[in-house]
Amino acid sequence: MSPLQLALGEKATITAVNTNETLRKHLYSLGVCKGSQLKIESTSLFKGTYCIRIDNISNLAFRRNELAMIEVAI
């Protein structure tokens, strides 16, 4: 399932990051990797940008299309 389907405050575990190798490595350096816990903290007015929390450590902002590349499981 996509993180875009999660409600605000809902947590899920990342199961895959479906992107090119360069971006995958960059996301991995930020803590976005298989097995990490993701939580939707907030969204912009028209849900174009999402603020997510990774493993209760870091907050990151993602565009909608970037977040769609991540797969999660509840």
Structure commentary:
With 74 residues, the protein is of the alpha+beta class. It has a single domain, classed as SH3 type barrels (Roll). It contains two helices and five strands, in the order βαβββαβ. It has helices spanning 21-29, 64-67; strands at 11-17, 37-43, 49-54, 58-63, 70-73. It has a five-stranded antiparallel β-sheet. A hairpin with a 5-residue loop joins strand 2 (37-43) and strand 3. The relative contact order is 0.32. The model has no long low-confidence stretch (mean pLDDT 92).
List the helices and strands and how they pair.
Blueprint: E1 11-17, H1 21-29, E2 37-43, E3 49-54, E4 58-63, H2 64-67, E5 70-73
Antiparallel strand pairs: 1-2, 1-5, 2-3, 3-4
Distance between the termini: 9 Å
Give the uncertain stretches in residue-range form: none
CATH architecture: Roll
State the helix count.
2
CATH secondary-structure class: Mainly Beta
Write down the Rg.
Answer: 11 Å
Query: Biggest sheet: strands, sense, closure?
Result: 5 strands, antiparallel
Tell me how many strands there are: 5
Count of folded domains: 1
H-E order: EHEEEHE
Question: According to CATH, what is the topology?
Answer: SH3 type barrels
Strand content: 35-45%
Average pLDDT number: 92
State the secondary-structure class. Answer: alpha+beta
CATH superfamily: Ferrous iron transport protein A (FeoA)
What is the topology, as strand order, of the major beta sheet? 4-3-2-1-5
| Range of helix content | 10-25%
What coarse outline follows from CA principal-axis ratios? Answer: globular
